[in-house]
Amino acid sequence: MLTIKDRLSLLRTNRHLSRTPAGVLEAVAERAEEIDFPKGAVIFTRKDPSVYFYVLVSGHVVHPEVQAAEEQFSIARATTGPGQLFGWAAAVEGMPDRIISARCNTPTKVLAVDGKWFQDVCSNHGEAGLQALQDLVRSYAGHERSIGGRRGWLSIRNVQKVYDPYGKAVVAVDDCSIEIRPGEFCAIVGPSGCGKSTLLNAVAGFDSITRGEIYLDGECINAANIKPKPGPDRMVVFQNGALFPWATVLENMIRGPIIQGKMSKDQAVAQARELLARVGLGKIEDSYPAGMSSGMCRRVEIIRALMNDPRVILLDEPFRGLDALTKTVVHNALLEMYEMDRKTVLFITHDLEEAIYLADRVLVMTTRPGSIKQTIFVDLPRPRPTELLGKEEFLQLKEEAIAAVHEEAVKAFEAGEREMA
Amino acid sequence: MSIPQTLKSVAPKERGLKISSGNSSDGADERETALIEAYRRARRSGTGRAERLFRSTDLRYAALGIICFLLAWHLLTDVLTIPRFNFLPSPASILREWTSTDPKYGVSIFTPIYYEHILISIHRVLLSFFIAVAAGVPLGILLGWNRTFYNVVFPIVELLRPIPPLAWVPFAVLILPGVESSVIFVTMLAAFFATVLNTLLGVWSINDDYFRAAHCLGYRRLDVLIRIIIPGAMPFVFTGLQIAMGVSWFSLVGGEMIAGRSGLGFLIFDAYMQVALPNIVIGMITLGLLGYISSAGIRRVGSWLMSWQEKGRAER
Amino acid sequence: MTTRNEKAEPRLALWRRRFSSEPRLALWRRRFSSPVFWQGLAGIVTFFAVWQVARWLGWMVVIPSPLELAVGVPEEIARTGYWQNWLDSSRRVFAGFAVAAVSGIVVGAMMGMSHRLRASIFPLFEVMRPIPPLAWLPLAILFWPTSELTMVFLTFIGAFFPILLNVLAGIDKIDPRYTQAALSLGSSRGALFRRVMVPGALPSLFTGLTIAIGITWEVVIAAEMASGTNGLGYMTWDSYMTHSMDGIVLGMLSIGLAGMASSWVMRLIGQRATPWRQR
Q1: Predicted complex ipTM
Q2: Which residues of chain B approach chain A closer than 8 Å at the C-beta?
Q3: pTM of the full predicted structure?
């Protein structure tokens, strides 16, 4: 058992709590409950009604929290130092479920503090107490509020992927963390071979990863040492198109929902027709993909994905190989479809212009091993007209992105030359 | 694209002349025309008069080639009578024998025995072909579908496959009752391996993205089998069936010659034994015709079943 | 690692790779540790076990069991003349194949270069191609003075069409852009042939050669069975006549092995000849 003094000094080491009024901190030191967790225990998880927050005494907790400054997220890889705070959701008003989880890597001892009670104490301490609470709240993931109730929160945490770990050991992605809000259109750009597609395959569940975890709405969908499973909650639109060439457009669209048991055949046909008509492809339902232009194929593929009502749409360089004119048409179609029903979109491309034009946020990836180098926020209003491509603010963003990507591209090029030699 | 545009308006003969006059080396131009022709064929854009004319030029050349061949054959066997060539039947004698109502050697289009041999051969080929397909296509799909099954069964297939079907003839004759079943067995064997292998290749040829997309769409294993693997492997399966039909005829002739008592292979060998020279060639030509018709039939069925492949090309 | 070491590394690594048995050992270790190997082994063992048990249960009267074969086949191999048979058959295959390869390549190249020639010859070949090679046997016996030549001729017929077709397909498959690029770079007709058409058609040619050598073995076996006096096919047939099941099985095994080995050699040559292809 720790003495009150020990506890107090422990609390003071935390930079957020140190600003809390002394009275509150002392009360916390008195009230805080010491809890021991065995190795491998999960402290809190999705839909956990626990209202505690925790101060680490000893041990090692993995993925304890999203440390968020509003939009740009990073993952605290682990909480190891005594006095560190995690599980702040308890401190945030109106957060019914936690969507995150913390796992103990070693036997762990924590001080658990009742969040409701903490809020009350803070508010009893007037201005200073409220200020402290607000600081705490702000530094907690501001986005989680918006997550409440909406689906499609994609959380990629410290992911590493090593191909052929016993042979050449190519590290494709290393310590890559991305948080994507529900309904966000997030683009990842980077030089070719930087691990963009690897990341997407990991999210889609096609590939396993060697370290880290990927969560969709707090559910673990991929982690080291598990065999991931693709599913209709994550629809992929492929680089080279994957409309089944032996099936008509209609058949391509309706089969998925029917097999999943989401719709009856009539319903599916009706919805497919409606969606096709809405994007102006009403007349092609009986033709085969080989008979359509590639731009049409892509549009059909995107609405095939939408038909399945996924939580996330993963686009893997879907417009590669389209000519510039077709591209603009398909871009607008994609934006239109995005406006219809704001799904979370993870969009992978190496075309900066299209990334900025389409996305809310553009992440620039470093060359192999890939991780996120820079985030570019695109606060251009939606709906975005084509004229935007020539506007000043667009060009500025583009310049910024080009500078970031160019550096990486040069690095990738040099790395490629080294590999060849 | 400007090349097909200009081509369409110029008649082929003029075009040939124009190109030859422009350049001294003739063959390169030939090659270029062939290239352009291939290009046109790939695009399938012009279906007008020019193309039909082009086709008919091809036809004229084809007729020329065949006539030259027949003429040479006639000269060598009937007119010049060079040693060794005089052993061969001449085209005229074959035609006479083939269409005679009272053939010297007993086989012509008016004798029932001729059709009997044909029917027996066809019956054998079809029977063994269908057995081979009925066993080979499912086996090939299963091999491609299930990794473990492949690992266990494919080595056995690989163990038996290199042995040519005809090497099985003595074995088959000894272990199977009757000549009929051993001939069919040998014929089937050839077709079987071709079918299995091509079906397997067909499953393997399916783009990985289709499987991934199917998983995304929530297809279960059986759905993947029915909706992805089977239609996706079809083009290769039909290539395999064509090959299988070819080797079926090949092995059938071998089987009938070595061990048979009837059929076209036997007809040929019997004709040789009794020195009925025209019958040999009649048998050969009949075999060639049947082989051609059967593989053309399979091609027709294949392209009809896989109209999804063709439709795109017509429009693009 | 220090700079000095880094400089010394490549040559050393190269040397090690060339002379150490480690990669091969590692390969075998990986093979032994993979389930694929054991599953395959289990399949083959089951196959032989079922065969053996069927014989013990008396279901198969004529076919000897694997164990009997294991005794009988080596005896057959030890007989005089077995290796001579190999030699005889190989000679025929090689002769027929060589003639077919040379003529197939020459005719194919000519047909590929000249549209007129192709249009006049190709239909003729199309007419003759569906005739099974064995159907030529009686005519060949009549025409050629010796049975040796007859058999070589049959192997030639068997190998010629696949080679020719694949040469043509190879030439057709050459991307017209390569030819156009060569022409726009001002290449002469000879250079076009040497630098574009030959390398372009090589992969397909080797596919044809690999197929053809397989067919050649099939044809030579049948020809020997029907009209030979020696060779592997004749040996098999002779074993049948004398009701020696061991001999038949040995014949089948030898023929299979011969076909496999020659296809393998052909593929190897093909890989060597087209180093730019990714494998």
Answers
A1: 0.75
A2: 207, 209-210, 212-213, 215-220, 223, 227-228, 231-232, 234, 306-315
A3: 0.75
